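The methods section describes the discrete structure representation at length, but only in general terms. Since the whole study asks how a given chain folds, the encoding of that fold should be made plain. An entry of this sort, consisting of the sequence and the corresponding backbone structure tokens, reads as follows:

. . .
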Amino acid sequence: MVFDPAVETARYIDSLGSEALQKAASYTAATHWLLLGGLLVTALVTWIIVRTGLLDRLSARLANRGWALRTWLICVAFFLISAVLSLPWGIYEEWGFERSYGRTSQPLSDFLTQDVIGILLSSILGGLFFLGVYALIRRAGKSWWLWSGGLTAFAAAATILLSPVLIEPIFNDYKPVPEGPVRTALLKMADEAAIPHDRVLMFDGSRQSNNFTANVSGVFGSARIAISDVALKQASLDEVKAVTGHEIGHYVLGHVWRIVFLFAVIAMLGFFLADRLFGRVAALFGSKATIADPEGLPILLLIVSVLGVLAQPVLNSVTRVGESEADAYSLRTVNLPDALAGALVKTAEYRYPRPSAFEEIAFYSHPSVERRVRRAMDWKAAQQQKTVAR
């Protein structure tokens, strides 16, 4: 019987069943609406902070402080206040919504504890980043947005470098894969890619999510491949090897630097447009702040948030290319197309596998599961043809 990649792809996707496919479609479509909801919440929070004059009053109280300390404190205060005001939305979006679709089993108390930690960290670090932005506005004048690209690249690289060491361990427990066939297979793969054994880890991803996932994080000495315990429990040995091969592909191909560069370029463009739009948006919300005033941070971030959503298709397009390259790397080095397809189908439970072309371009950070499975089946067919030709 002739192997037909199209038929095999359809078989893999249909194996989920109509009910699971319908649920995945509903979940995926709802996440798209959440983007709009998030923007509306951001706009509302901006309006409340501006109209109440909270940052203006704080600025007046800090008038005798040094410029740097005053600016940083105002930025931190904004992040804290906005987090408190948007907390109900955050609970729904990140916990309630996920729980309604069975994507998380995390208790609300644990979610809130981790959320508070995340808010504190992002407020402190976000305050430092925007202190740098306002320093650029003061010193570079009209070209501040151009220099912001370098600042963004530095901040992104520093975050990626330090996150596996200082931040990620706060939220999850990372440890070596337990002794056994899985560990033996993964360390052999690491040796073939010249990856140190201590950079292939597992983590308790089930604490926050029931999603089948793995990731690469860090750069230089902090870089590592981490596989969720969900994936290790749900996958066969071959599926774990195929997924790990994909993540090794990200690691070996240095995809993280592509993302850092892209963030820098998009940041420059975003800050350039924010510089031009700030006055109009500030007037619309009744703010008298200029773009050089930290009291205007709510307006600046609102503009950046809207532009960030509009730029999402560009970001998604670049990450989709990286995901395709990592899939190809796994197929070339591990050569387990059926295992890769089986693992990919498990991710279709929270990412509808058959989106429209527009939906995939606009919202998907990964190629559709159907497209990725088809590429794996095409690879399998090509290998079979080579074998016959020999």
